[in-house]
Amino acid sequence: MQRRDFAAALTAALATPAVLGAAPAAAADRSGGGSGLPHHMRAVLAPELDDKGAAHALVPHLYDVGFDWHPPTADLRDLDFIVAYGFGNRPPADGGDPSKVRPEPGPVNEELADTVARIRRHRDIPVYAQWEIARFLESKHHMKNVTSIEPVIAPDGTITYLSTDGVAAQVAEARKDLPGGIGRAGVVGFRDHVKRCVQTTRDRGMTAYAPKGFSMPGTYDPESGQAWTRRRDLYLVHDMAAQWSVLREKLVREAYPHG
């Protein structure tokens, strides 16, 4: 019965017009106050685990990872630079060893570059862009003041592509010694990736938000060279797995800081 109640609460929350326009956390609260979605999640999970305390501790994480896909935002005027994270690619146009031949940036990264260009028209601030995006900023938009975050290339030509965290680390390193400090980052990323991009940027010691009022690209490329970025159902699982991995490390470190 509790599972059916949970399903009914979720359906009602998603079907309520007022909730659809709300931020995710607010949506859960407005779907019934104390009887909102997190409440129903705790009600189902506590008897399933036979542990009310564990359920109470887990539900905020379950909600955040599985039900909240919106990043925190800030006005563009309050941001000092842009960080743009790539999403997917296309196989190398002329073939070759994929470990030593760069892929094509692909249409999604072109859309991300277009988004950066749209933002820059409103405020001329420095841009740090993963190379797949930077290529379009340079060739299509002829944009200046762009730092391309490049992959690591070994002496034998082997290419190691940077993860989301690897890109954030490079940006943090590039800005750490600026006279005015690192500043506040405006994060650009694919619609289903951008929340994690903001989190990862913050985890690297930067204040970060998505620019308020700017939509992010959300159309998947079925020809992407990265299989998990071809379909939304597959990517969401991938992204949740990445969020859980980072969260696990944080929680263990907080619980046992000395090992």
Automatic annotation (TrEMBL):
Keyword terms of this UniProt record: Signal
Does Signal count among this protein's keywords? yes
Organism domain of life? Bacteria
N-terminal signal peptide: 1-27
| Protein name stated in the entry | Lipoprotein
